[in-house]
Amino acid sequence: MQQNQKINVASYSSYVKFMGKSLSCVDAVEMYRDIKDRSIKFNVSVCNAFLSSLIKKGKSESSLKLFTQMKRDGLVPDVFTYSTLLAGCAKVNGGYYKALELVQELMSNGLQMDSVTYGSLLSVCASHKECNEAAKYFQKMKDEGHSPNVYHYSSLLNAYSADKNYEKAEALIEEMRSAGLVLNKVIYTTLLKVYVKGGLFEKSKELLKELEALGYAKDEMPFCLLMDGLAKSGRLLEAKSVFDEMMEKQVKTDGYSYSIMISAFCRSGLLEDAKKLASEFEEKYDKYDIVILNAMLSAYCRAGKMENVMSMMKKMDDSAISPDWNTFNILIRYFCKEKLYLLAYRTMEDMHSKGHQLEEGLCSSLMYHLGKTGAHSEAFSVYNMLRCSKRTISNALHENILHILIAGRLLKDAYVVVKDNAGFISQPAIKKFSVNFMRSGNVNLINDVMNAMHSSGHKIDQELFDLAMARYIAKPEKKELLLWLLKWMPGKGYAIDSSTRNLIMKNSHLFGHQLIAESLSKHLVVSKKVKLHKENAR
């Protein structure tokens, strides 16, 4: 169709919708940007199809960026555009406030909220635990003449579950019945979530029986909600009883119930029970997902079963399951516990390369242990990965890595740390660095270090100048650097002492008598001024 120029609005919209999740985020964005015909490129149906594709792929941030670009280039969005983007706001950080901006923009463009848009907004409120706002928009929707359906009620129930407000949830159920709506599996399950979150476990058990009687508990989700709530409330035996009941009834499971119980056993220190359940799952089922694999991996790591840990990692590879943030953290903590610090470092490298956020506490601990075992450059690499991963890190981390770099004689890297973060590093630490650098750092950078320290407000003492001069005198070929430093010092209020002056004069033939004499005369002027200032201060 492209070769014969038969592509139109319907072609693009249908193709993107048909490809669905098989179309990668990058491919979708590139395909959109490659559209030459502006009448197609900024057609609202085509734009909506591409935005929806990104949302379905979980790329809500990318969809919002593309939407901004589309508007800048000429798109006039419709109500469906905003409904699509609102749905994506449920799964992004700060999504509630982004949703409010979209709603404000929608109204500013003269559009009206419809039942679909309200449904998306209610879902965002529920996801971000904005219970009162969800109730407000639900009422506003009704006031504007929109009749709420099961989806709207389900979203509001979800908001009540986050707020643990079972009384409002029960009132909402009665409202649904009065409106003649049939309570489906989603509604009953959401109500169960409300009871569990509110700690109403007896009501939860009764409702679970009702779900079973209605045929709504043929899969594990309702059981898992109750099990998870009981386990996290310290009622492990009751949670295990629900799990055993589920197994006896041969309820269909995807492994989530196992992951809940394995994690619960681990939290309670019952590592053998966790390991036994993980082994049972391995024997009975031949399919895995990241949740169950993480639970089993955690159980084996806590039990110190390296062979089983390696087996789980192989299963992930064989099943083409990509490790998530939790997977990496479980492994890094385990390798650190086993004192396999370089393996922990390589795992963190892999984690960072895949775009996962690094945890500062874990990075700090790994940096410390790498430094203690002589892996100083690897420790510095962890520090840099963390800086790339986080906008801000604690001030203490800069000084910690500085000490590690000094111990490892990585003075050039230490200089970079000091230059960029001098304000966050203590004066004793800076002094320790500067003394080490003057003694054995790159001689070509001595003047840069002096200048950086002075610019950061650090007062350079005579010891550092003595060390620097001694390094230069030992290397006559560095004549220009010595002369630059001698010229720089008086302008900043510094002067060498008599012993260093005598040493320089003794070796002046190496650098030029006249140049040395001129430079030292300026130092004498500064010395007299400093001496006079001290006398007046008395």
UniProtKB/TrEMBL annotation:
Keyword field: Repeat
PPR repeats mapped onto the chain: 43-77, 78-113, 114-148, 149-183, 184-218, 219-253, 254-284, 289-323, 324-358
Gene3D superfamilies xrefs: Tetratricopeptide repeat domain
Residue intervals of the PROP1-like PPR domain: 56-211
Domain of life per record: Eukaryota
Assigned protein family: Belongs to the PPR family. P subfamily.
Name of the protein described by the UniProt record: PROP1-like PPR domain-containing protein
Originating species: Solanum stoloniferum
Source taxonomy: Eukaryota, Viridiplantae, Streptophyta, Embryophyta, Tracheophyta
